Structures are given as structure tokens and as C-alpha cells.
Write the C-alpha cells for this entry.
Amino acid sequence: AQKVTQAQTEISVVEKEDVTLDCVYETRDTTYYLFWYKQPPSGELVFLIRRNSFDEQNEISGRYSWNFQKSTSSFNFTITASQVVDSAVYFCALTGGGTSYGKLTFGQGTILTVHP
Amino acid sequence: KAGVTQTPRYLIKTRGQQVTLSCSPISGHRSVSWYQQTPGQGLQFLFEYFSETQRNKGNFPGRFSGRQFSNSRSEMNVSTLELGDSALYLCASTSYRSYEQYFGPGTRLTVT
């Protein structure tokens, strides 16, 4: 069975602070895919990134960066110089390859509040 | 390219009734997945359809069912509604090339 753990239930920061959201996963699959989604108050899940299990290269996209470490089964997400618009619930998710790619296992989510 | 659309956006039903939710995937996506989101249980996978066949199934009772049409549009049905079925139901479509799953705005179901 697959499992995703986001230990931080809520994080509160002041604008311009850097913040890291933690994600730890469990899977027996050798090929798997990790995701981060953002859910603003409107409710729609917004896709942020996908990472393959065979690609441990870190990625940066603007103020967002992701650190994938297979040795610790972690896929952490950092927002640099946070902004009020970053306030949302962030979910980490996992799926296997093959015919199971349509089934995502989500973590419980981290509520991020950025204060002005 | 149009995103995933879901109808209706809001629904109020009475316990014991049944409900049907609809989802239209991104053009070209043949995989459609359904999820239930509640404050207590979080985001839980219901089922996935691919080429009109249920390919993956979550751990939900048989009252929850779905189907997919030849144009990849999907419907989800919940029969004999219970108060605990009140939730945000999210539909997503997946690109088989990238495995990236994109979500619709959701249908918020309230059971009274």
C-alpha cells in the first residue's frame, strides 16, 4: 500500500519569509511519481509539479523549489519570499506507474497562511 | 485548451435520495478519476475510468458507482445518500504521456 505523510498540519509565516513544506512517502513500487498540488479557498486543486522516481534532480520554478531524496523517501517543497497569494492548502501525492497512474494517494495537506 | 469541467457545482440532496455528478475531461485525456474530499478523511480516491472501463477502485461502498462514455466524459452516481456523503467531489483527467493529473473545480454535495 502507498502512503503519504505531511506532518505539518498548519504553517503560519509573515510575507517574504521562506517556508518549506515536508512530504514523506511510502511505496513498494520501483517506479512511481510524486506530485504537489495547491488548493486555494476556491477549492480547485492546482497542479504544481510532477517528479519521477528515477529522476532525483531538484527543480526550481520561480519562487518554488522542490527537493526529492529517495534515500529518505522525501519530496519537500520550498517557497522563497512567500506572498499572501501563496496562502492555500498544499497537498503532496503519489502514484505508481503502469495502469495505476490514475490513482493518486494524497497526504493530509498543509495549511499555509502568509500574513502581510 | 479547456480544462476539466464538472457539473453541477453545488447540490443539496436529502438523505435516501440518489445523485449523479458529471465530469468532462481535458480533450485527449482518456483517464478520468474521482475523489471525495471531507474535512475528516481528506482526499480519498473513489475510482478511475479508462476507455469506458473501471481500471482502479478505491475503498468505498457499492453505493458509489460510475461510468465513462465513448467521448471520455464520466458520471458518478451515489445512491441512498447518507449524511456522511456530504463532501467536495473532485474529478480529474490524466495525460497518459506525462501522468499529470488535472482537476476540475469540484461539486460540493450537501446531504440534509
Chain B touches chain A through 28 residues (CB under 8 Å). Residues 19 and 34 of chain B are 15 Å apart (CA to CA). The two ends of chain B are 37 Å apart (CA to CA). The first strand of chain B starts at residue 5 and ends at 7.
